[in-house]
Design goal:
Layout (H helix, E strand, L loop, with lengths): L6 H21 L1 H22 L5 H21 L3 H18 L4 H25 L5 H26 L3 E3 L3 E5 H21 L9 H25 L14 H22 L4 H6 L2
Length: 274
């Protein structure tokens, strides 16, 4: 198996970031909320830089302030409608202030929506007093296993490319291997957690894994559109936070949507209990 030059940076960044994320997720409360808010603001900063939005500093201040206010409201007041209003106001402010035509304004607005995907799905799932930590552990296991397994299955098996115009290194074998092993990881987490219906949640893990790969492809296509190699140089030798969170953002959003559709009053339970 040929190991790519990006393997060591991937391992190094994972060894640095994963313990911080896991500890904050375990503690929950304001430390987890603060970590998510910081990550969301940094992702917004990378997005605005990637699309060369102007005036960048003003847009970041408006969007970052709205994200921080929305997250603080959700954490300390628990009122979802006001959280959504604050987020939408931030998105509208970015669209109004951004210079350029309608396309540039839509891209700026999209950055706010994308950054909000870092915060709110994970926060709402973690807030469940009984299944919050398990649901977040399940989500991280599915997304992280997807990324790791897709990399190694693609290198080991090879074969036809998944979408060479967007991401020339990704293969169908990597995509399928990542989804299958991520499904097994999700099942294992629920089995260890003592959830009897763990097998019934397997299809959910599979579709969340596929969604996370779609998030990866979306960011790859965006970087090609704007002619950048990495979202930033925030992580030495391995790009930015968007490069690490692209799959998580889309996977978490779908996980929350499934949970809300199945059990609107308790999305973590709706995601895991079938």
């Amino acid at each position: 198996m040929a190991v790519g030059p990006d393997l060591l940076p991937r391992v190094a960044s994972a060894m640095l970031l994963a313990p911080v994320v896991l500890f904050a997720a375990f503690v929950g409360g304001w430390p987890f909320a603060a970590l998510l808010a910081i990550a969301a603001i940094l992702v917004l900063w990378e997005w605005l830089g990637m699309i060369a939005a102007r005036p960048g500093g003003v847009l970041l201040a408006l969007g970052g302030g709205a994200l921080a206010a929305a997250q603080a409201n959700l954490q300390f007041n628990g009122t979802l409608p006001l959280t959504l209003v604050l987020t939408l106001l931030g998105a509208a402010a970015l669209a109004l202030v951004a210079r350029g035509g309608s396309r540039e304004r839509l891209w700026a607005l999209g950055g706010m929506v994308y950054a909000a995907g870092v915060v709110f799905p994970a926060q709402l799932l973690r807030a469940d007093p009984t299944l919050g930590l398990i649901s977040l552990g399940w989500l991280l296991a599915v997304v992280w296993t997807t990324d790791i397994a897709a990399y190694f299955c693609g290198r080991l098996i090879g074969g036809p490319k998944l979408w060479p115009r967007v991401s020339p290194n990704k293969t169908w074998s990597g995509a399928l291997g990542g989804a299958i092993l991520a499904t097994l990881a999700g099942v294992l987490v629920l089995r260890v957690a003592g959830i009897d219906s763990f097998l019934y949640a397997a299809p959910v893990a599979f579709v969340v894994s596929v969604a996370s790969q779609g998030g990866d492809l979306f960011e790859s296509s965006m970087k090609r559109r704007f002619g950048v190699k990495d979202s930033s140089h925030l992580i030495p030798g391995h790009g930015g936070l968007m490069d690490r969170l692209d799959g998580f953002i889309v996977g978490a959003a779908l996980a929350l949507a499934i949970g809300l559709l199945h059990a609107p009053e308790a999305p973590a339970r709706g995601l895991l209990i079938w």
